[in-house]
Amino acid sequence: MIANIYVPDTALVARAIEYVRDCYEPYLFNHVMRSWLFASRIAELQGVPYDAEILAVSTLLHDLGLVKAFDGPLRFEVEGANAARAFAHKEGLDERRTQLIWDSVALNSTPSIGLHKESEVALCTMGISVDWGSGWCYDSVDTPAMNSIVEAFPRLRMKERFARAICGIVESRPETTYDTFARDFGERFVPNYRPPSLVDSLFNSPFEE
Q1: What three-state secondary structure class fits 28?
Q2: Contact 190, 171 (CB under 8 A)
């Protein structure tokens, strides 16, 4: 048990925890741990069948795209999903389980899709959404579990630090943010941010009509 939440005690999960402990800043490590435990608690409360190892790995690795070592030209969720897939392949996971991890990471900030995918993807999305806060599955976790998890893994000024990380992506790779939640941070916090517009893409297309 971690923070009074039942989780799988396997070598794969242990290696995932150590991997992200080395990759993430402390606030981000605590965030993914809370997200995993929230997701596990939701699964317990709902009684849904799911692969507990895949949920663990997916949720723990879901923010690899924010790590400098995995910077790249794609939106950060996809860079993170590709890094998570590499981890899964190194661990010898089959293609089905690897694809669930990739989907969970790539869709972690798109609940309008993720919540309607396989149980592992949906639970991962829900756990992350709980840690995001107001309006996003927050009420899916009971108060005792919420308090226990946050006490074990404090937030460490996550709001400020996470916003700073996303704004860094907006500033350095604005072309990857036009259809992501990073756009919201850019419009709120980054001066002179001008994301590409899909409306312009349609109306500036070369077709004659």
Answers
A1: helix
A2: yes
The reported pLDDT for the residue numbered 31 is 98
Token pair belonging to 174: 């604005």
- 70: which DSSP letter? G
Question: Which 3 state secondary structure label does DSSP give 97?
Answer: helix
Give the model's pLDDT for residue 169. 95
Kindly tell me the burial class for residue 15, based on how many C-beta atoms sit within 10 Å of its own C-beta (0-12, 13-18, 19 or more).
middle
**Torsion-angle region of residue 11: left (phi > 0), alpha (psi -120 to 50) or beta?**
alpha
Closest CA to 186 of 175, 198, 199, 202: 175
Q: Any residues with CB less than 8 A from the CB of 18 and at least 6 apart, and which?
A: none
Query: What's the pTM value of the predicted model, to 2 decimals?
Result: 0.94
Q: What is the pLDDT of residue 173?
A: 93
CA dihedral of residues 169, 170, 171, 175 (deg, nearest 10): 100
With contact defined as beta carbons under 8 Å apart, do 14 and 38 qualify? no
Residue 138: pLDDT over 90 = no
Q: How far apart are alpha carbons 70 and 64 in whole angstroms?
A: 7
Average pLDDT of the segment spanning 158-180? 94
Average pLDDT, the chain: 95
